């Protein structure tokens, strides 16, 4: 069933859909009065709703709360060194949203080949935010992740505090380190937050990793294989989901 995120809150159980949502529902999906949809208004709770009018505005009536919450038990922020193609940020945002990330941040690393000109950043972020919003609807999230950009690593670290912070460092994997990530995931509790840093193509520099460890960020390996810049964040998201949703449910 189609899900839509809405900034408004129901008034007397009714919600008037914004023009773009109404167009998609009534023109693209050909919804009529009586069509059922799922809506997530400003309280971030999912509701079953029914179309009650399509003219002059499309209005839906709340039927009942769905009582479902598809969010990860912890808030995950991914800080990604800016990749060199536009397709890779789009892939990271889309798939990380499906996997439950709360925020996706891009920053210009020392080895970033691509650079976002100041006059193009708003447009690029706007497109990535639309991808996140669409993926959140498709995957039936209860909230829409936010996409941000910072000019450098120091700014990103200062702007994105978290209860736990890790950096995916390929040298940790090469040295056989296997326990650091598992230890972090064993400590984190529901309601807390974790931020993870990833390098661009070519990886992070030793100086950047030293800068992060000095700031209390823990270097972790992501297994013995070297992962692409667009793969590593998704590996981490899957590991978090397994540790905190699947493995914990069997205890």
List the helices and strands and how they pair.
Elements: E1 3-5, E2 14-16, H1 19-28, E3 36-40, E4 47-53, E5 59-65, E6 75-81, H2 87-99, E7 103-107, H3 121-138, E8 146-150, H4 153-159, E9 164-168, H5 170-174, H6 180-187, E10 193-198, H7 206-214, E11 218-220, H8 232-246
Parallel strand pairs: 1-3, 6-7, 6-10, 7-8, 9-10, 9-11
Antiparallel strand pairs: 2-5, 3-4, 4-5
Describe the structure concisely for a colleague.
With 251 residues, the chain is of the alpha/beta class. It has eight helices and eleven strands.
Distance between the termini: 32 Å
What is the 3D shape? elongated
Q: Uncertain spans, ≥5 residues at pLDDT below 50?
A: none
Query: How many helices?
Result: 8
List keywords for this structure.
alpha/beta; Ribosomal Protein L25, Chain P; Alpha/beta knot; 2 domains; six-stranded parallel beta sheet; five-stranded mixed beta sheet
């Amino acid at each position: 069933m189609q899900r839509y995120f809405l900034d408004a809150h129901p008034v007397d159980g009714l919600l008037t859909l914004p023009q773009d949502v109404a167009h998609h529902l009534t023109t693209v999906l050909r919804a009529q009065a009586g069509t059922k949809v799922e809506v997530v208004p400003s309280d971030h709770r999912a509701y079953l709703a029914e179309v009650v009018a399509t003219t002059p505005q499309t209005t839906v009536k709340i039927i009942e709360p769905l009582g479902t919450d598809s969010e990860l038990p912890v808030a995950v922020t991914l800080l990604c060194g800016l990749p060199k193609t536009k397709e890779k940020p789009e892939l990271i945002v889309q798939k990380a949203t499906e996997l439950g990330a709360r925020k996706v941040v891009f920053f210009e690393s020392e080895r970033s080949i691509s650079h976002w000109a100041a006059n193009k950043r708003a447009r690029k972020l706007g497109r990535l935010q639309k991808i996140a919003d669409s993926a959140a609807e498709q995957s039936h999230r209860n909230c829409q992740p936010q996409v941000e950009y910072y000019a450098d690593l120091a700014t990103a670290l200062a702007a994105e505090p978290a209860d736990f912070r890790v950096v995916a460092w390929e040298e940790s994997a090469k040295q056989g380190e296997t326990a650091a990530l598992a230890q972090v995931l064993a400590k984190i509790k529901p309601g807390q937050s974790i931020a993870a840093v990833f390098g661009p193509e070519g990886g992070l520099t030793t100086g950047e990793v030293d800068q992060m460890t000095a700031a209390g960020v823990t270097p972790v390996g992501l297994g013995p294989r070297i992962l692409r810049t667009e793969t590593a964040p998704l590996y981490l998201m899957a590991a978090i989901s397994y540790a905190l949703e699947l493995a914990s449910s069997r205890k």
